[in-house]
Design brief:
Two copies of one chain form a homodimer. Chain A is an alpha/beta fold. The first copy, chain A, has two domains: 133 residues, FAD/NAD(P)-binding domain (3-Layer(bba) Sandwich); 198 residues, FAD/NAD(P)-binding domain, CATH 3.50.50. Chain A is 31% helix and 24% strand. The first copy, chain A, contains twelve helices and 25 strands. Chain A is globular, with a radius of gyration of 23 Å. The termini of chain A are far apart.
Chain lengths: 431, 431
């Protein structure tokens, strides 16, 4: 890009929490910003699991990036994919071959699923990172229920009604709780041949407890809440293999047609673009002020960065870290700040299902209904834009009061090749 | 299906307006009903164009069919595809080979796009019948704007910003108006390199006037409203050819990357299943009480049927006809009614855009703001379920007050292979 204005050119790659926070801080300032993302929308990722379980619509938790910067003429939004960085010439290379010059570069490219070297599992156990992922999981869960309704082979029916979530972090816990609610509620109301007793939701966690980043007593509270919802929690159960219709742990072979991956992520290939060292999760090592070692004008933030926290351990891959880092590097670029980025931890929240959550705010730890209200308020508050907040609040209130799920749509073509025997009894049955 | 209960078995194929109305009337009665649809959701088709133009989310206008019949144990909902009917044995054949016995059969399979023998046009000019269609058009329109923003070839940029709607019936008029509003509003707010002046929306109608089923003065009012919105209305402009990036009418070759087909529909293949005569739109001929000639226990309703109206002309393919026919045949099956189906026409409505509509209720004809309020109220009222009504009303109110579009998401993978030249000026430009 030709430098028309002589103002510093900032290129931000990725419009997640980190990139968006940086761009917002730079809006209206004397810099020319180009914000590049592969999608036209920002996604509020903490609520993606609600789209995956038919509680919310995509537009409730995602909005066009352009719309956020309507009134900021110094922010240019570009729908494109970055394929590399030419650090010597200070250029970002786009998929079509175009190059964009930068004076400052912010890498906020986020993370994607990691199958620990078993990429072949991805076909059977989709992860949850984008709106497309969420819609694919929603489709899979809803279709499994539909097929179970007409399936007469008992073993296949049970496999269709068995849902496995791999990974007991916040996403896994939230997914397991929401699937249990969805399957049991809608099955008991709307289906004729299957009953809630038939469906199983199994949460597999390799470690000693779910929510390992929370205090142990909150992990135990979460486990109890999950069990109240009918989720079978399996601890110390690392996955050995996942294939078409099954999950194999060291102790057990589970037949399940729906498996959701919530176990591991890896950073996007930003480290490879710069040809610098990365940690085992693919994250770039950054200095105290978040610039990449050896590149004073390149910053990495959020899930892309391995930034040292207190005690030297890397900061967690959560939204508040990314947002605070985005603001920090914007201030560094504007010359308003320097020195060391310090993460202010306001606490951790995770929800388990209707009326249940755990909250860890240092000395204040709680679980149950009040924790759930806190979780709801915090999530609605941080949603982008007043409209989404209102839409989500109303949807939740509606779902809460009616026990319904408002977005139970199976979209995309459905395969109808399953042969069914001629006679189908109307009465309910289940093993 | 084995007849367990000895009650009459009714099979309804299709859960559009007609099939749903029939099933609702049969709910709780002494009949066993199986309602079959290829999708798990009912779509409120009159508002599909709002999903296609990013005003509403799919879940706002569609809901799971099962949910509608939660409390009606005699209605079984089946997600499957019908491939044929065996009239001698009284069986419906499903895709997987399963057969369902019926005592009464209601064919409510609706219509799909017809390209008048030019099926090759479908790849370039998608129609609007399903949620998937609407999302595909939304994606196409939004991506065209995104690409125009970075395109530097002047001719390509203009083709990206030219939107052609083929067909001046209600769907075509509504689409053209909504695209014009979307393109101009969001372009003027959120984009940097393109301006509203650059974009063109062209409505092609083969006949003498738009909305040919309305009185001529309302057609003229609609044309004026469209022109106020910046839509170029071309009358007597039949399409000769549609290809990759162009539409050819007898008088004009239009370069456009986005073409929407709203010109013709044909009935689904129900006539072929029964091997009976069909009209040139593929519709089954039905007798006065809507049974198919020669098959006293098979009814055809809605867009599937050619039912004679006053004066002998076929009844129009609109939702009220399908709904009234659905109730009527349900009553015939229940032995509550017989004789001739008579359509009660309460009027015709079409909207053109923000604050503009035409209403034809016999002696009462109006256009403008009051007509638009009438249109809005009627559409909200007829939406399935209180929740959708509330969601749509709030969305509309929000969109109306803020001039925003709440569902501007491009979902699915985006191709980024377009090469772009190195320097891109930030200033706006347009031919």
């Amino acid at each position: 890009m030709k430098n028309v204005s002589n103002r510093p050119r900032v290129v931000i790659v990725g419009a997640g929490f980190g990139g968006l926070a940086a761009a917002k801080r730079l809006a209206g300032k004397r810099v020319d910003v180009t914000l590049i993302d592969r999608r036209n929308h920002h996604v509020f990722q903490p609520l993606l699991y609600q789209v995956a379980t038919a509680g919310l619509s995509p537009a409730d938790i995602a909005g066009p990036i352009r719309g956020i910067f309507s009134r900021a003429p110094n922010i240019r939004v570009l729908l494109d994919e970055v394929t590399g960085v030419n650090v010597f010439d200070g250029e970002v290379v786009l998929k079509g071959g175009t190059k964009l010059d930068y004076d400052w570069l912010i890498l906020a490219t986020g993370a994607r699923h990691s199958y620990f070297g078993h990429d072949e599992w991805s076909a059977h156990a989709p992860g949850l990172k984008s709106i497309e992922d969420a819609l694919a999981i929603r489709r899979k869960v809803l279709l499994a229920l539909e097929r179970a309704e007409t399936e007469t082979d008992q073993r296949m029916r049970l496999a269709l009604l068995t849902f496995v979530v791999v990974g007991g972090g916040p996403t896994g816990v939230e997914m397991a709780g929401a699937i249990a609610e969805l399957a049991q509620r809608s099955v008991s109301r709307d289906f004729r041949n299957i009953t809630p007793r038939c469906s199983r939701v199994i949460l597999l966690e390799a470690g000693e407890r779910v929510l390992p980043t929370f205090p142990p007593e909150l992990s135990r509270a979460a486990e109890r809440s999950l069990e109240d919802l009918g989720v079978e929690v399996r601890l110390r159960a690392p996955v050995r293999d996942i294939g078409d219709g099954y999950v194999d742990t060291a102790k057990e072979l589970i037949f399940a047609r729906t498996v959701v991956w919530a176990a591991g992520v890896t950073a996007s290939p930003a480290a490879d673009w710069l040809q610098v060292d990365k940690d085992r999760n693919g994250r770039l090592f950054v200095e105290a002020d978040l610039h990449v070692a050896g590149h004073r004008n390149i910053f990495a933030i959020g899930d892309t960065a391995n930034a040292p926290g207190i005690g030297g351990a890397a900061l967690p891959a959560v939204a508040p870290v990314a947002k605070q880092q985005g603001k920090f590097v914007a201030d560094v670029i504007l010359g308003r700040r320097s020195g060391t980025f310090i993460y202010r931890d306001f606490g951790n929240l995770a929800t388990i299902g209707r009326s249940r959550a755990v909250v860890d705010m240092g000395r204040l730890r709680m679980s149950g209904f009040i924790a759930w209200l806190t979780w709801s308020a915090a999530h609605v508050w941080f949603l982008i834009g007043f409209r989404s907040r209102l839409a989500v609040t109303l949807n939740w209130l509606w779902n809460y009061l009616t026990y319904q799920r408002s977005a139970r749509l199976i979209t995309g073509e459905v395969e109808f090749s399953h042969p069914q025997p001629r006679s189908q009894p109307l009465e309910r049955k289940c093993a």
